[in-house]
Amino acid sequence: MKRNRIITFMFAWCLFGLSMSGQAPGSWKTYMAYHDASQVIETPHYVFAVYDGSLLSYSLEDGEIRTYSKATGLNDIKIRLLRYSSEANALLIVYENNNMDIFVSANRIYNVSYVMDNPNKAINNVDVVGTKAYLSLNTGLAVLDFNRREIKNEYYTGNTLSACQWGDSLYVATDKKLIKAPLACNLADMDNWETDTLVSGQVNSQSITKMLVFYDWLILYDDSKTMAFSKMGQSKLLVEGYIRQLEILHNQLVLGFWSGFLFLNTALNQTGVVYLDGDFRSVASMHSPENYWVAWGPKGLAQIKLRPNENSSQIDYEYLISNFQPNSPLRNFSLNMSFIDNKLLVTGGGRNSNRMNIAGTFMVYENGKWLNLDDKIITEKTGLACMDLISAVVDPRDSHHYFVSSWGEGVYELQDTSFIKLHTYTNSSLQSTNPTYKPAEFVRTDGMAFDRNHNLFIANAGVAEGLSVLTNKGEWYSFPLIDKVQVNQLVITKDNKKWINLFSGLNIGIAVFDDNGTIENKNDDKLYFGSHFTDQQDRKVDETTYSSIAEDQNGIIWVGTDNGPITFSSAEQVQQGRCTRLVSMDERGEGYYPMEGDKVTAIAVDGANRKWIGTAGNGVHIVDQSGELKIDNLNKNNSPLISNNINSIAINGATGEVFFATDMGICSYMSDAIDGKPDYSNVYAYPNPVHPARQSRVAITGLMQNSTVKITDLAGNLMKEAVSNGGLYTWNCTGPSGEIVKAGVYLVFGTLPDGSQGAVTKIMVIR
């Protein structure tokens, strides 16, 4: 039973939303969900918790909250197990892919990739004894030494579920039986192992998934009951049924179950039980036998103070801290992103020819704070399950007015995250793919875009008229494309044409629709369509799907296929079945297609007109055509990119931050290009002053597009001359010979190529 005194733990979102102007070019950030707390550990100075597979710490001394990721030094993502060695004062982090980190402090993280590097091995469980961690593998038992940070021994005991030391013997539970061997013998020799007969007939020896020693008792859990055994042959049934956690806290045995946890004393008698509202996951306590930290699923993390009840075994509690949830994305689902009106819009649904039934996910990131849609409220409002939200746009006339498409229910209209209206087959020109059976669940919409006159165009999949528009007067019209195709993204180009990729079905291809500026008059409409294309060398592209579209600063249309990107200069080129592909030269001077074979999933264009091209499985390619063709690649092995499977890319043109939506969540990279400014009224450098030994680069921002930048000392000696990337230039604090410049003040001159406008700012270099 809980008491009513509740202290809600609030902390500023600014802790998690670093000011973009202070983020250095070349730096990374992650934007992971911190909503569902699954594991918690208290150490002498910190509380560590796992939320949605990511790590967070809370300082017991000053209340500081920190999140950890690949961008801050972890070596992987998606934490599955978290263990702690009090003797080594270190955490062991086990990831879903069987990679491991030993976490001593934020600056001392050591990777142990042995299990991950052996594809036939997988970690079932981890039991910590002293400075050793027994890794129960599907192939046997491995012993990890915390201090040496390496696998010390490995024993091929078969598919192992749990392990512990009891007296002078090592006990190992496999999926066949419980075995033991003296610690003093050669454990690598399987002849020294024997089947334990102590538990025979009392537990299921093939499913002992939790095991520990509590004083002189061996405690076993076999997925249906928890029992205790002594070496004298005594046995005792402790609990029947499922338990989540088996732990020793403050010299008491703690068993966690679905909705709370109970205590047993050294005589194995139950001394109390704590019933918790909601989805209990785990409990931890180190400093006080009265105060406990609880990982509480969607309620986040809480600290409770126990109040024993003299008249009942049920222990009351009060909150010391509750609602411990950082402001973050609601989920790590991210299908599509767009950066519009200084905010990042994220949808996290899914679709192919059918729907994926992913909970309705719409998230807005603005000024360092996340705003998340509550799909349950939307379901209550409409009477239809809110699922598979595909894309989102913001009304150019109202920055808090959104339209969100879905692969089944039509288009949701929202004010912030409050429901306004559902546009569906009964109140709009949108159509259902199944008009006779549950038609309200088959209104499949995808890409959307506003034109310059504030008319909202919507791609409507699998129907006769696959393009609809809601005009700025509130009127609906629809237009035929290719009959009943699966439409995907929709981009309105500078010449007001609507480009749509058709990603699956009998008629895959690219459709370009031109309403000629007269939406109401269908007689002057034009439709251009191409299904398969031949490039500038008269070679077939051999594509089987089209997945993304973007227009660059020169009006060239980039289209992603499953065989690399292709480009078009006009709608007529689409109709003719002609395209252009990137061609590079190898060391022998022979041409080749640099991204041939890559399945392109996303394309975005930055302020320097570079193309950021996301792929399925090969990370991100950065295409620079400002001089000789240059293509760089970012992947999870050479950068903090959290996954090589990219779903979407969005760029904040004002800051240069490039956001990547992956199958594992969202991360970003601060690039060295921003959109050019209309004038030189706000040119400045950061960080400033700069210490080259600590900050390797300084950014000069606020420049006009493609400015000529000159950096000199106060005597006028030229240190560097270059052209800005859009409105940004990054200087590495070196002089003409590549050496780090001396301490002092340096002048930055930015001018247009014709010299008609210019600006000056200063940089102080500290040595």
Automatic annotation (TrEMBL):
Q: Which domain of life is it from?
A: Bacteria
Q: Which stretch is the leader sequence?
A: 1-24
- Start and end of every PorZ N-terminal beta-propeller domain? 47-194
Q: Which InterPro entries match?
A: PorZ_N, Reg_prop, WD40/YVTN_repeat-like_dom_sf
Keywords attached to this Swiss-Prot or TrEMBL record, sorted alphabetically, are: Signal
Q: What is this protein called?
A: PorZ N-terminal beta-propeller domain-containing protein
Organism of derivation:
Candidatus Ordinivivax streblomastigis
